[in-house]
Write a structure and sequence with these properties.
Layout (H helix, E strand, L loop, with lengths): L1 H20 L5 H10 L11 H9 L4 E9 L4 E11 L2 E10 L24 E6 L2 H12 L7 E2 L3 H10 L19
Antiparallel strand pairs: 1-2, 1-5, 2-3, 3-4
């Protein structure tokens, strides 16, 4: 019976990788991702080469940062690096931490009442994808090893909610917090 559960775990891992890469990559890239992604590290986070490749191909990447609050309400924040006209823009999003039905971060109401929050707060613009990731780390506290493809940050948020909103990320590290200005 133990062998069966191990096989099912690997099948689930392969299906998760396929879902995350659907419409985004060729079969060769999918094959490489399945063969080189270690089971212990999870399949959600992008390896450095895939992360930079996604940005160079014009695909945005996101990272769930964790709790964020105002004196009146609790919220969560996430950061997005979005390719735009030859540059890379880093947006910080802060949304209310409500009891969501879909865990889609884009559908949650903004934490702050500003016009910028409809699209996110632009915190930096760079001309290089690696520099954009460095700027995201410096300005928002993002961690290089926790980037995901667009819309997968909602899965991180779902895990955060279902785990009881813990102070530590699944890898045991504290959740990143944006540096004080």
């Amino acid at each position: 019976m133990e062998f069966r559960s191990v096989v099912e775990g690997h099948v689930n891992r392969v299906k998760t990788v396929k879902r995350a890469m659907y419409g985004r990559a060729s079969f060769d890239l999918l094959r490489t991702r399945i063969l080189i992604t270690p089971w212990c590290c999870g399949v959600r986070y992008l390896a450095e080469s895939f992360l930079l490749g996604a940005l160079k191909r014009g695909r945005p990447v996101e990272q769930f940062l964790g709790p964020s609050a105002t004196p009146d309400s609790l919220g969560v924040s996430y950061v997005e690096v979005r390719p735009a006209e030859g540059n890379y823009e880093i947006y910080l999003h802060a949304v209310l931490d409500t009891e969501p039905q879909t865990y889609d971060l884009d559908s949650l109401p903004a934490l702050f009442d500003t016009d910028e929050e409809d699209f996110g707060l632009l915190v930096a613009t760079t001309s290089d994808p690696a520099a954009a990731l460095d700027a995201a780390a410096d300005r928002t506290g993002a961690v290089r090893e926790r980037w995901v493809t667009q819309s997968m940050a909602g899965d991180e948020y779902r895990d955060y909610v279902l785990a009881g909103r813990p102070a530590r990320a699944p890898d045991g590290r504290p959740r990143p917090t944006p540096p004080s200005s």
